[in-house]
DNA sequence: AATGAATGAGGATTCATTCAT
DNA sequence: GATGAATGAATCCTCATTCAT
């Protein structure tokens, strides 16, 4: 009885192992062998399923982006009203799922990968556009014409938060990061309603 | 007449070549040989003067940080008043000298290097602290107790600006980045004086 | 049918090639590549199976020591009486298997390796102790209290024989070496029974 | 005023440094740079005076052999009678000057060098012949026809003593080594006069 | 599906040696 | 006489990738 559906399981294991390994090393300089071993298989099998190292990285990236996207969507579904929706996006960005040491390290490295891999850049640009669009749309009713500028600032604050946290030694502190960004949002809303 | 000081010349050439090479590749995955060749010497000489690859990277990092620091100091010297001083720091951060494709790529990679190299992290942390202190100090007379929070946000916006620009294909647009950050600053000042 | 045990075969081939190469060069200054080539494989595979150059050397050393030990044990098994046992050890030390140009060169180089490698020294010290113990034990019934002194002299004569032979250009002459050492033994026995 | 006779001083310094360096490393694998630095000069100058690395080694070897030879000659000059002369040679061989950790290591490495360098082998063979001749000649009046056989054994015991000492961790114990060899000599004389 | 075996290519690093000054 | 500068050549080692089984 050949075990059915081994492939998706293997791929998922590899993706997870990749993120863990990058997070641990803080670099893309991790060997396929190590990733495969952590995922409980031979490096040959990893190649079999993914084709090559970069493909493994891209799959890991896609996974991170997907998880983040799902988190945002989930938060949006429960949010009521424009402000709540914007705040939900911010909170989702610093949720315990995404704002973890290893995932932060992975993000940072994906930005680096995007410098040399067109495919990686494409993924990251899509993510950026979607985030920007979500924020812009949610902010329109709140700050009118400034919506996209504010959206841009919020996005930059989020990215900046990640970057700064990447240097921190302690556990990632999502709450403080959220407070900072929402503080800025409050300021903008204050002014808009003044 | 003994040939004077080949060493500082060589070191400077290597540092420059390193930044260029990292900028071009978008990675730290550049060979010492390529760097040396670009700097017009053998890789053996590069090792002779620096000891090893990481030392070369650290020297390049120190250089970038030093240039940036000088730029900030220069701008501060010409600024009159607290607000002007804060704005000067922001402008210096996006000056044409520092906010160039290759330097941005270098910064990004230095953040990655800091994940695995204690020496690199130390350098980056020092830079962060100094920036934060400068901003905090300049903002005190302007926003009082919120000074350090605002400073933190400005710093995050600057970092975020770099990160976002690293994905941009066109030439780096420092002016727009400055406008965004200063827009936020204006908002804070407005509220403080309200 | 999975191809069985390439590893032991490869390792054995490498060990053999290492001894041959050291014997030919008269130095530990042989490259892993040359060893691997002589063993019919890539240097990468040699590293894969052994980890590094020193590990290859240590394995070769262990092999030489093991072969010698087996030879001694075999000779002892056939020897009848104390004197015969001591003589068997001496003869085994200069057997055609061990007292060959390339093996002698290897021995010499292992002594050198032991100067800088703790692992190598350990191996050599163990071999020395065992030899000394064997001789001492065998000599006790023959020369009583002088046993260990005589054992020490015999061991020194054996080592000296190797060292002197390492300079000889002709084929190794085990018989003469044996005669010298046994001549000394006879002398001691003569005196003991006088 | 150009300093006269700098050359012999420099050469002597290099020779001394070479022996020290080999002794410390336990290998011929020492760099010319380190030797030169220890001797207080640039590696370029070392090459200037000696031509190349092997020449430096050969000079160091010649020095060790010369010092040893002088020691033997000095001891012989003071010895009265055949037995005293033979004993003098043995004692000189284990004198504090020659039987020191670093010199022992150098000797061992010279044997290795002799495997690949004809010049080194020549030096070592000459030393061996002279030692053998000296012993043989001194022993003739004492043991007659057995002289050269006994000489050979004594020489082997001396070499063996060096080899065994090279593995010892403590300070070299020349006295014990001398005792062992002279014990053997006494045995031969006893028999000869029986 | 899965893996051990195997390698080519490449890269950091070291070092003896040369040379201009 | 003396040295800093400079490099070509070599070597160890790693790793992504392929392939037969």
How does the SSE layout of this entry go?
4 copies of one chain form a homotetramer.
Chain A: H1 6-25, H2 32-38, H3 43-50, H4 53-78, H5 82-93, H6 101-116, H7 118-143, H8 147-167, H9 174-192
Helix pairs in contact in A: 1-2, 1-4, 1-6, 2-3, 4-5, 4-7, 5-7, 5-9, 6-7, 6-8, 7-8, 8-9
Chain B binds a DNA duplex (21 and 21 nucleotides) through residues 1-3, 6-7, 10, 31-33, 41-45, 47-48, 52-53.
Provide a descriptive summary of the structure in words:
The structure is a homotetramer of 194-residue chains. Chain A is an all-alpha fold and 194 residues long. Helices cover 80% and strands 0% of the residues of chain A. Chain A has helices spanning 6-25, 32-38, 43-50, 53-78, 82-93, 101-116, 118-143, 147-167, 174-192. The mean pLDDT of chain A is 93. Chains in contact: A-B, C-D. Chain B binds a DNA duplex (21 and 21 nucleotides) through residues 1-3, 6-7, 10, 31-33, 41-45, 47-48, 52-53.
- Number of helical regions of chain A: 9
Helix content of chain A: over 70%
Radius of gyration of chain A, in Å, reads: 19 Å
Order of helices and strands of chain A: HHHHHHHHH
Largest sheet of chain A: none
Number of strands of chain A: 0
Low-confidence stretches of chain A: none
Query: What structural class do helix, strand and pairing data of chain A support?
Result: mainly alpha
Task: Tell me the β content of chain A.
Answer: under 5%
How far is the N terminus from the C terminus of chain A? 70 Å
Please identify the oligomeric state.
homotetramer
Q: Which two chains touch over the largest interface? A: A-B, 39 and 38 residues
Average pLDDT of chain A works out at 93
Outline of chain A, from the CA principal axes? elongated
């Amino acid at each position: 009885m050949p075990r059915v559906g081994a492939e998706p399981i293997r791929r998922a294991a590899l993706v997870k192992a990749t993120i863990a390994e990058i997070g641990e090393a803080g670099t893309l300089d991790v060997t396929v062998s190590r990733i495969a071993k952590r995922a409980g298989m031979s490096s040959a099998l990893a190649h079999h399923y993914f084709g090559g190292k970069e493909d493994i990285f891209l799959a890991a990236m896609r996974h991170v982006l997907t998880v983040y996207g799902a988190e945002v969507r989930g938060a949006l579904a429960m949010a009521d009203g424009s402000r709540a929706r914007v705040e939900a996006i911010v909170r989702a960005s610093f949720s315990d799922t995404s704002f973890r040491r290893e995932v932060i390290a992975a993000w940072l490295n994906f930005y680096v990968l995007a410098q040399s891999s067109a495919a990686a850049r494409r993924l990251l640009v899509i993510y950026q556009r979607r985030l920007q669009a979500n924020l812009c749309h949610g902010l329109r009713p709140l700050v009118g014409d400034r919506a996209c500028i504010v959206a841009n600032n919020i996005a930059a604050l989020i990215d900046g938060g990640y970057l700064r946290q990447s240097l921190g030694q302690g556990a990632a502190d999502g709450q403080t990061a959220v407070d900072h960004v929402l503080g800025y949002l409050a300021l903008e809303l204050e002014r808009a309603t003044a």
